[in-house]
Amino acid sequence: MKGWQQYWRQFSLFALLALVLTGCGKDELSALKPSGPVAAMQFDLMKLSSAIMIGVFIVVMAIFTYVLIRYRKRPGQQGIPKQVEGNHALEILWTVIPFLLLIIMAIPTVTTGFALHKEYPKEEAVQVKVTAHQFWWEFEYPDLGVATAQDLVLPVGKKVQFVLSASDVKHAFWIPALGGKIDTNPGQENKLWLQADKTGIYYGKCAELCGASHALMDFKVEVKEQADFDTWVANMKGVQAKEPVTATSPLAAEGQQIFDKSCLGCHAVAGKGGKMGPNLTNFADRERVAGIKAHTPQNIAEWLKDPQKMKPGNKMPNLNLEENQVKALVEYMETLSVSEKK
Amino acid sequence: MSAHASHAPNRSGLWDYLTTVDHKKIAILYLIAGGIFFLAGGLEALLIRLQLMYPEIELVGAKTFNELITMHGTTMIFLAVMPIIFALMNAIVPLQIGARDVAFPFVNALGFWLFFFGGVLLNTSWFLGGAPDAGWTSYTTLALNQYSGIGVDFYVLGLQIAGLGTLIGGINFLVTIINMRAPGMTFMRMPMFTWSSFITSGLILFAFPAITVGLVLLMFDRLFGGNFFNPDAGGNVVIWEHLFWIFGHPEVYILILPAFGIISEVVSTFSRKRLFGYSSMVFATALIGFLGFMVWAHHMFTTGLGAIANTLFGLATMLIAVPTGIKIFNWLLTMWGGQIRFPTANLFAVGFIPTFTIGGMTGVMLAVPPADYQYHDSYFVVAHFHYVIVGGLVFGLFAGLYYWWPKMFGKMLNETIGKWNFWTFFIGFHLTFFPQHFLGLMGMPRRVFTYLKDQNLDMGNFISTIGAFGMTIGTILFLINVVVAAKSSKRAPADPWDGRSLEWAIPSPPPEYNFVQTPLVRGLDALWVEKMAGNKGMTPAEPIGDIHMPSPSFLPFLMSLGLFVAGYGFIYHNYVVVVIGLLLTLGCMFTRSVKDDPGYHIHEDELEEKGVKA
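Predict the joint structure of the above. Result:
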């Protein structure tokens, strides 16, 4: 091969590296920007293993490039190259060195592995029961007596012990910036602990193919200061203990009527309603509509008019609402808040 | 025609190919069928990448996208690369061991037709109510009736039929390599491609029954209301994963080992050197095959098996890096001190080395369970296995095709088009899959039909789609090359590359009996040994005599057609059709058992004529 073809290959690789490495993703999402001890431990292992592997790659590429340039057939070259059978010393060398490299990787693999599989009792960690559904997430805090959906609320700097399962098909629970990942198996329970070290919003994903809207099964993690978290729990509890809030305007009152008639069968609000769909007690506080779209009245209206359009294959039927009914419902749903309106 | 006819039955054209039991023609059938499925799988891949070119676009719907990814994976693994491997094994392995035929020519034809009809059955799902959409792994519960459509029935039945074909094909090659070697061709003188085909066949023997068991259980769940995997009725969803991956992991090695074999042949031929560390290569291949069965649960680190299982499977997986590393360094040292030429075959082989090294490295990274919790089911994994399967296997297959094309078809592929083919495919490949490592770490799960704006995932996806066009151009160039070669009137010489192993000792393409006289093998790289001793060709191990050949037969086609028909009967719950189909198959089996068919002989005089002509 001509020398320039070698450079070409390396040039294209480096160009790519430069291009991709300019950004390491979004803080709220990327596993390359860990925001908690679990993600940090995992990131350390990634760095260690990729450093070793890049080292190996450089050695291989150095020999590779040298061989291709030095031993290419030249015009007029005569004779037959020496037919080498092998070399025991060399072969042992490149058997033993990988072994040693693997041992370097194996030790933190074992220790981190067991650290990540620890289970924390309720004295040491907030307990959260996660149930995955097609295509939304249900979060219960059994010790706090609170339940929510789609937006997971956590206190900062505290361990959270998740117990996870699924109601229909297998899903996987993944918050890259806080740490990954565990499957939610129907009929079984899995455990996972995470911790967020910074307040803010993080993005969560479903990572296991679970049907048509698998790609849209996102959720948000809202990490609050401990005091704010306690307030949130208290507010949620307060609301859940009593009947849904009374509507604040005539339009909202109309919306509430429609809601009570058509929606409560599946959706819980405060202490009332079913568990088929997401709990809507604190709907107005949520970051996103359906876990994916910006929280705007337009998007809520769009969802209500045709739920299958935004998330194909989800279980909410089209209620064939009229324009003014949608308006009323949106008005009412925007009052479903447990904190100060954003 | 009498029982001991002395002439080959006169057959030509399509009928010849429908009834052939000649391993070289079966190789061509495998290549054509596998090639067509490869194009289908490639088209599916291109649609996938187009859908992901920009965030939140609607090109294909969510459901169609899931069908595309399912069919892309299933097609590429079972219906494209496996058959092309079988094509090369059929075309070359009997020649490399100095055999006149495979052990069971009839079974060999049956294996092809079963694969073919299984593949056709699976692909007709596109037109009959929707393709399977539960992923190529068909994880339960998503693959159960309650959550997915009729497509999964096509998956379950198509793969059972195709899998039967692969299994008997594998058994045939095990027996062929054990029993049909020419005098002097000891195990430790077999070319690496034959060695890797041998170990691959062994893996097929043990791995395919596992998927068959899984598919039968899933079939009972879906068609007859069984509850093996249904958690609502006490079934267990994780059992399917175990069955699938007990097959699925060795499958990865079933695919990659023949590619290793091809690379070993090509690199050594074009360096004009014997393979460095041949015996350690054999040992490494066997060890990889063995370890391949020990590590299936590394696909299930996030399933919840616990810290102990995950750690053990993780460490066992890392071990595979050692024999794989031995191979990489042996190839480098084979080139060291050689006279390296770079026709297209060797370009692909040389391009394989860094590419596969990257795939192997990310494989070791994935073997660290705590880190895998971040990689698993993300685009990092998608990047990894495409580096291994495309960067390893498809590069290997291209190398093998360019290398052995003259032997298979008697025509040389064009080198200029070949080089364009290599560079477009190579650059396109890296553009497509390299950014996907980062997309995965930046939080993109696999199998998503779209992604939202403002997640910093746009640029990586865009580059990736551009790269897919490069691979498409490369593939089209290969097709053009095939047409150009077919139209060219120039015939390929018997030994165009200054080859080392036995297949280059006979004309291109070989006559139907391969070797006029069975060769006597006097060392590793049998032909090279003779060349170095100054001989014109192989020393024969027997006098010239009549050659016994098996009769062609239409039964393998009909037998597979019967199962194909029965498959539709099962899918549509029409048991009359099931019975008709199974009766056809059983009737053919009965006919085959009672009909005496001793084959025919090619007479001595005729033989010399043919030998001269060919």
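Residues 64 and 70 of chain A are 10 Å apart (CA to CA).
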